[in-house]
Amino acid sequence: MTAVAAGLEAEPAIEVEAAPTPLPLSTRWRIMAYLAVLIFMIAYGNPHGPLIGLPVSFFLKNKLHLKAHEVAMFGLIATAPVYVGFLFGFARDRWNLFGMKDRGLLAVFGAATALIYLAMAFLPVSYPMLLIGVMLVGVSYLFVLAAKDGLAAMIGRQHVMSGQVSTIWLVVASMPTVIGYLLGGILSDTLEGQNAAMAARILFLTGAAVMGLIALYGLWRPKPVFDTLHAESAASRGHALADLKRLAGHWPIYPALGIWLLWNFAPGSVTSLQYYLQNTLHAKDAQWGQWNAIFAVSFIPPFLLFGVLCRRFPLRTLLIWGTAVAIPQFIPLLFVHSVTTALIAAAPIGLMGGVATAAYMDLLIRSCPTGLQGTVLMFAAAAYGIDVRFGDVLGTSLYDHFGTFTACVIAITVVYALIMPLIFLVPRRLIATADGEAPEGGFG
What we know:
The chain has helices at residues 3-10, 25-44, 50-63, 68-78, 85-94, 102-121, 127-158, 162-192, 196-218, 223-226, 240-248, 253-265, 271-280, 285-297, 300-309, 315-326, 339-367, 373-402, 406-417, 419-423. The chain is mostly helical and 444 residues long.
């Protein structure tokens, strides 16, 4: 019998979610610290994130001379494992590797991802190597991501702190994004020169080191984090179809995922914007990295603001007002005519989207059916990957057809406006409470 099978047999079947239990402030801070370190490291190891993904995109553009739509297609293919991300989440919800649940996934697949990065570090840099390597890393990495997502959602729901978990999740994940964009832009300059092979080696060795640390982190079991959680998986061997049926019949996930899909589609906000800034406004690689860094860091103040407001106002209020502010998010780019003004515009663009992003994450956590948090959160991750890539393809098509970034701004604004009607389809009881207050009847 395999360790996975043994874990499935040992996992208890619990059909009803226990009543949420608020924790003392000191315990909550310890849990948040544990999650912060885990989220930080996992964000750094992301093969599609700025530290790894940005230099790869520059290599494709500048060294292999791919056109905008060709770079977008590379991303579309390389992120293919993400499109079935819910399968990794479903595995997380049902597996119990070595009796360690999420910690087992972190340890096993953190180590596996590190080994793949290590192999990439010593292979010649080429299009096939990058494509195959990024895909293999992505498969292993998704198990690690599923463990983190499922664990964070469990903590948020069981301790009635989904808003606080969303805040720490997004704030901490933004930090390596900012640093990664800055370093990624600088690293791309090295990739331009004769030391491209060495730069790629350093890049992938860094990824290997980070994922190795995650594997070790999975072996640690701090009591404030894990002794305060109760098992809630409804999975037992032979009942996968029953779990899927329960998931399909859980109405709250549909408007929540619909909002998430629309929010992350944003046609033209990636490759088209890069080509507009670099080809039209003549921005350098490092300046494109700086734009993304400013954009990402500008989300942090509204994330923190949400962390305060979520304890005082019902989530429904924050969803409505956050969306209203976010709809015109990219309109400032219509008034950009230089690299300097583009860098300045990145700040308000980021600020306008922060509260909405945190509110949507909070909604996703609240909307999960009991015991299937990993499945729903990884479905959201898959939706994000699909959205970004297909939105990128649509955006580059609009940009190439009309020859102006204005078409992309119009498309993004229209898509964002479609979010508001979906908010009113969310069950009112689920979003009628602030953080620290359990919804009537529980989360379900």
